[in-house]
From TrEMBL:
InterPro entries: Choline_transptr-like. It is found in: Cell membrane; Membrane. This is Choline transporter-like protein. It holds the Pfam family Choline_transpo. The chain crosses the membrane at residues 130-149, 156-177, 197-230, 242-270, 312-336, 461-485, 491-513. It comes from the Eukaryota. Belongs to the CTL (choline transporter-like) family. Signal peptide: none annotated. One of its GO terms (molecular function) is transmembrane transporter activity. PANTHER family: CHOLINE TRANSPORTER-LIKE (SLC FAMILY 44), CHOLINE TRANSPORTER-LIKE 2. One of its GO terms (cellular component) is plasma membrane. It comes from Peronospora matthiolae. The keyword Membrane applies.
Length: 560
């Protein structure tokens, strides 16, 4: 990642933060500024000669007067020519992002680089929307912190309120997207943006319907998760310093996302500037000679973005896994500590279990976290490659090949989620036992296979307890950011970044309760297995045993 970043930063065109993909750039390499467009008077012969205009000419035959530095000879520099008025006869065009695209012409045949670089325009919008991204990070922080307080003091009520709020937000967002996609005047000249809005509206409508079905089917489990939040709150009440961990993780994620966005913009804005003397056809005079500068994007460096994306995925997972490991170690220390019968609190053998957890994680388990964070990434990339080949019709030779391709994608998808689950359980076992990743993975597989139904049922409680919190933070942050991005030329990619970062911020705060609940239940299962089987736990608090017997154990087991 560092090598890719240094390579991207070393390009001269990246020093100005990739102005060629942020907005329109004229033939001299100068930015046209906000709310201005680049018009190409002779786009068929000289697609690198663009001038800045306030409004794109809608009809043909208009006379456009531009003051240009004409060349007196081949040895004259770009800025040495005197400004002279030149008249051009316009062709019909329409605004597309920051470029005046020719009307009635197949855009696949137009060689205007600023018009063809759709991905570059989307990435360039990230650099021009940095104020909105900073505001969104603050909204995600405040919303996640507020929801964490609600979980602490009113678990079940917060679950119900979150369900209603998320469904209302999804329904309203679907309505707004459908109206925007159905408006014939909005983005009528930008088919890429219009198709993105249409796809987003369909996805949002499906999300609203699916979430409603999810809430109806899983409401008992969500209410049960709200009840188990009280047990996690009891443990966290003795581990108050653990509540500082989400803020530290949030700052690390904020710096990591800022670094990733900066490197991404520089990668897509990297290239080389070439200068030539162009002969341009005009109305008056008939021909002019102008020195033009054209920007050529670095295709090789853009391919390195895949490696940069892999590094970002690994780094984000590593930061989140480190936070989970510290939380899991502290909760396991709390669970297996003896209980004071007079006060009902746990008596720790060390002065500060949170500091001890941080010390043990950094000193012994960083390799385990790095390996577990990286294990899923290659499988995900293989699946993405197979999906890419399938969409490119590489497997369309016969029906058997298509069926096998879909089966491979399905198997890899199942294997990815199984591997992710085992890696997460291995991290929990490492927090309890202090063993290596390989040993913890073997013990996790043994534990899962011997208690398949119980582990599957128990592990979903922690996930369900904070799922609504993650969704509500994402929806609120994305909705407010959408209103703030109303004037952006390409708001899709900034919204995607806002969704990813808000989910990461929500996960940073909610993972305390998710990991705490999962660790309490995992320690409970290990406690029973180490002391004679079910109903033989030694270290479990009485309220936790009562909740497991009432909700997570068949009645015939509690009677026997």
């Amino acid at each position: 990642m560092i090598a890719v970043a240094i390579t991207a930063f070393s390009h001269e065109s990246s020093i100005s933060f990739a102005q060629e993909i942020e907005g329109g750039v004229d033939f001299q390499g100068q930015s046209c500024g906000p709310r201005r467009f680049v018009y190409f008077p002779d786009f068929q012969v000289n697609p690198d000669f663009g001038v800045c205009v306030d409004v794109c000419p809608r009809t043909a035959g208009q006379v456009i007067t531009i003051h240009l530095p004409l060349e007196a000879g081949m040895g004259v520099g770009i800025k040495s020519g005197a400004l002279s008025p030149v008249h051009f006869t316009s062709y019909a065009s329409h605004p597309r992002a920051y470029v005046c695209a020719p009307a009635g012409v197949n855009l696949q045949q137009v060689t205007i680089l600023q018009l063809q670089d759709t991905i570059g325009r989307f990435v360039g919008a990230l650099a021009s929307c940095w104020q909105v991204l900073i505001i969104a990070s603050g909204i995600a922080l405040s919303t996640a912190g507020l929801y964490l307080v609600m979980l602490r003091f009113c678990g079940c009520v917060s679950v119900l309120l979150s369900t209603v709020a998320i469904e209302s937000t999804l329904a309203f967002s679907s309505y707004r997207l459908l109206r925007a996609a159905a408006d014939p005047l909005l983005y009528e000249d930008d088919p890429v943006m219009l198709s993105s809005l249409q796809i987003s509206s369909v996805v949002m409508c499906c999300a609203a319907v699916l979430f409603l079905l999810f809430a109806v089917v899983n409401m008992p489990r969500l209410l049960l998760a709200g009840a188990f939040i009280t047990h996690a709150s009891r443990a966290l009440s003795q581990l108050k310093r653990l509540l500082v961990l989400p803020f530290i993780t949030y700052v690390l994620l904020l710096l990591l996302f800022g670094w990733g966005i900066l490197v991404t913009v520089c990668i897509f804005g990297a290239g080389e500037m070439s200068t030539r003397i162009a002969t341009i056809a005009a109305a008056s005079p008939a021909y002019i000679s102008v020195a033009t500068e054209s920007f050529q994007a670095s295709t090789k460096l853009r391919w390195l973005f895949i490696y940069h994306l892999f590094g970002m995925y690994w780094s984000v997972n590593f930061v989140l896994s480190t936070s989970e490991m510290i939380t899991a170690t502290a909760i396991s220390l709390w669970y297996f500590s003896p209980e004071n019968r007079m006060t009902g609190l746990k008596d720790f053998q060390m002065a500060d279990p949170v500091s001890y957890s941080v010390h043990m994680t950094i000193k012994y388990h960083l390799g385990t976290l790095a390996l577990s964070s990286c294990s899923v990434a290659p499988v995900e990339h293989i699946r993405s490659f197979l999906l890419y080949l399938k969409h490119k019709n590489e497997f369309e030779a016969n029906t058997f090949t298509k069926v096998m391709a879909r089966c491979c994608c399905c198997c890899i998808w199942c294997f990815k989620y199984c591997l992710r689950y085992i890696c997460k359980e291995a991290v929990y076992v490492t927090a309890i036992q202090g063993t290596s990743f390989r040993t913890s993975g073997k013990l996790a597989c043994t534990l899962i296979s011997s208690n398949l139904l119980r582990v599957g049922a128990l592990s979903q409680i922690g996930y369900a307890s904070v799922l609504l919190g993650k969704l509500i933070v994402c929806t609120i942050t994305s909705l407010i950011s959408w209103f703030l991005l109303d004037n952006a030329s390409s708001p899709i990619l900034p919204l995607v970044v806002v969704v990813l970062f808000s989910y990461g911020a929500a996960h940073t705060f909610m993972t305390i309760y998710e990991t705490s609940i999962n660790m309490l239940l995992m320690c409970f299962i290990l406690d029973e297995n180490l002391h004679g089987g079910r109903s033989n736990s030694v270290h479990a608090p009485a309220p936790l045993i009562q909740s497991v017997n009432d909700h997570l154990r068949p009645k015939w087991q509690t009677v026997m």
